[in-house]
Amino acid sequence: MLTSETLRLKNGRSWHVSSGGSGTPLLWLHGLSGIHKSDPLVAALERKHRIIAPLAPGFSDLAEIDEIGNIHELALDYDDLLEHLDFEGGVIVGHSFGAMAAAEIAAHFPRRAKKLVLLAPVGLWNEKYPGRDVFAEPFATVESFLWHDKEAREALIARRSNEDGPVSDAERLIAIAQSLTAVTKFVWPLPEKGLRKRLPRISAATLAVFGAEDTFISPRYAEDFKRGLPAVQTAVVKGAGHMLPYERTDEVAGLIEKFLAA
Predict the structure, then answer these.
(1) Does the domain at residues 3-261 carry the CATH identifier 3.30.420.10?
(2) C-alpha 5: how far from chain center
(3) How confident is the model at residue 144 (pLDDT cuts 50, 70, 90)?
């Protein structure tokens, strides 16, 4: 289970970083739901890895993103943290916006990642299958289409309530609103912010995994990543939407470990 601490960098920036497990270091960059000590995918990865999980800027305090002007400065911000952690040539795994951040880190600073895993990555745009614009939706409706497996969603909510304490629907909506507000600065307005042009800079072996029923990021984006990264491996998980790490946790963890072991 993850434990948290606050790191203060030489540049004065503070980061909330969770960690746990033992073994090969693995940087986990979370999606829209943030970081929870009861995260089932992280728990699965902890069996073989020492997880390092920074909380993305803005998720704790929106003031954190005031001085981060664009996606390039966000990548620089992460690089400062990785320099502090002495993280180089490691494994980076990201989900959703976290996957976009992982790809940007690997493109801006190729030495940081030896292997890269992108789960339902945001960041590319194709007018043939643009997907649903989550950033233009009412906060109260977002969870309803990010998830395909509603039973998995309820199971995760129950698990977090048991381990972290009860959370009301209103509190969950406030958390979603804050996370979307933080992410919007780097993603909105669509279309993409140039990641497609930067993909060839990525030297890390890469696995991109999509949910077959994802209505936010179409699984057809697997082909776009193949065009940008000819050596990328892709997988599409049946019965999963955008929240595939939590809808098909065992299958996703298996795909990741198989890729890392190759």
Answers:
(1) no
(2) 20
(3) confident
